[in-house]
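Our preliminary data section would be incomplete without showing what the modeling component actually yields. Below, a chain of 208 amino acids is followed by its predicted structure, encoded as tokens that our downstream tools consume directly.
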Amino acid sequence: MLKGLIGKKIGMTQVFDEQGVAQPVTIIEAGPCFVTQVRNPEKDGYAAIQLGFGEAHPKRLTAGELGHLNSKGLVPLRYLREFRSKEPANVGDKLTVEVFAVGDRVDVVGTSKGKGFAGGVKRHHFAGGKKTHGQSDRHRAPGSRSSGTTPGRVYKGSRGAGHMGNDRVTVQALKIVMIDAERNLLGVKGAVPGGKGGLVLIKEARKQ
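Predicted structure:
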């Protein structure tokens, strides 16, 4: 069975292990998810399973999304995401937090918090200018961008000020420390990208 779920970040808390040490834990409402499509190499060129999460009012979905789900006899689902997998699955299968076990390692994919336009010091950890010798306004300046006649321009991809955050981020090999099957809750040790209520994908860790 596919070891993957779609969920929502609830927030962070702490739990105590057997030695009484506090462990930082992120709580995720994971699933239940439904298999909405199975892709195979013969027809699609690759193997994957599409999952749906979060029942929604039909008006919240596009006509294409509704048709895709109605043709398979499924309820309207707000989020559809694909997981690369060769595991056998059937459309309509229900996946819950019970696909994982305490102690499993998972990769969590989310969208980091957007921080708007940020300077080079905040965005890329530039050192800034010297704090001495009469310097007045160069403390957080980026410094030289390039050289004069050659190349006489700034190379593409150079780090500088710009839009920070709101990126797809993957945190690898987080340990599952808690599972609450009744409330569809998953507790993973450590931090997860994004703010409260953000959508996350939970996959079996690639690096065990």
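The two ends are 18 Å apart (CA to CA). The chain has a mean pLDDT of 93. Preliminary results of this kind motivate Aim 1 of the renewal.
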